[in-house]
Fold these 2 entries.
Entry 1:
Amino acid sequence: MLGRPLATFLGHVMRRGKLEHLVTTGKFEGKRSRGRQREKIMDGLATWLGPGKVSDILAAVKDRDL
């Protein structure tokens, strides 16, 4: 049930392009913590939207006309 609100929030965050962008894409330097890895926001959104690449989702977000 969180698919649509999460998608709109992701579009808002990705267009800003600041720290929130780094947090949602999960691109950090350093080591991973031990144990089971947490599910990333982009992975959850990709499973909700169906088959496709995360790069396609990011490209669709950036192509939005204002």
Entry 2:
Amino acid sequence: IVVKRLFKDNKSLFQELAQAHDGITPAYRLVSQEGPSHNREFTVQVLLKENVAGQGQGRNKQTAEQEAARDALMNRGWI
């Protein structure tokens, strides 16, 4: 049985929309990581070419990237 996913994560959705609207694949850049190793806070920016489209924070890089993509989607009015 194949179940179709009705929800796309923010990173996938932003990549699809950025490619469709702008023909650009987003890139993610780690801006900072703060705190002790057991309790880090990561800050990531998502870029379209050289322009910052969004920024996010999280306890791991993956979460920070998802939050950056969500910020970019909101900034562009796509969600």
